């Protein structure tokens, strides 16, 4: 078996710094940021279903982006995105994609929706 890989995000941290501040959870999202995105510190997320919250670091956001790339179009079907390459353009992200991303940030998995 031959594996071919491609770099989707040359600098994931830079991409996240530029785009996470524009991400907004929709009205039905269980996980949502409750503080402004802080690339140098922590961002607090709240799970409205469980009533819990967690302070998440840039490393949590980078890991969430990796998990999203690994699962979209394979085991996770959100926002009409069929391939991880579609995630590179933030214009392709909608409320469903934000929701999955925020769940990965806080929980490390998608459990809602």
Write up this protein.
It is built from three helices and three strands, in the order αβββαα. It has 113 residues and is of the alpha+beta class. The chain has one domain (27-107). A hairpin with a 4-residue loop joins strand 2 and strand 3. Helix 2 packs across helix 3 (95-107). The termini are far apart. The model has no long low-confidence stretch (mean pLDDT 96).
Quick description:
With 113 residues, the protein is α+β, with helices and mostly antiparallel strands. 31% of the residues lie in helices and 12% in strands. It has one domain.
Task: Give the arrangement of secondary structure elements.
Elements: H1 12-19, E1 31-33, E2 43-47, E3 52-56, H2 58-71, H3 95-107
Antiparallel strand pairs: 1-2, 2-3
Helix pairs in contact: 2-3
Properties at a glance:
3 helices, alpha+beta, 113 residues, 12% strand
Give me the Rg, rounded: 14 Å
Q: Strand count, sense and closure of the main sheet?
A: 3 strands, antiparallel
- Helix and strand sequence: HEEEHH
Number of helices: 3
Give the strand order, joined by hyphens, for the main sheet. 1-2-3
> What's the helical proportion of residues?
25-40%
Count of discrete domains:
1
What characteristic shape results from the CA principal axes?
A: globular
- DSSP strand content: 5-15%
Give the integer mean of the pLDDT values: 96
Q: Give me the secondary-structure category.
A: alpha+beta
What is the end-to-end distance? Answer: 34 Å
Low-confidence stretches: none
Using DSSP, what is the number of strands? 3
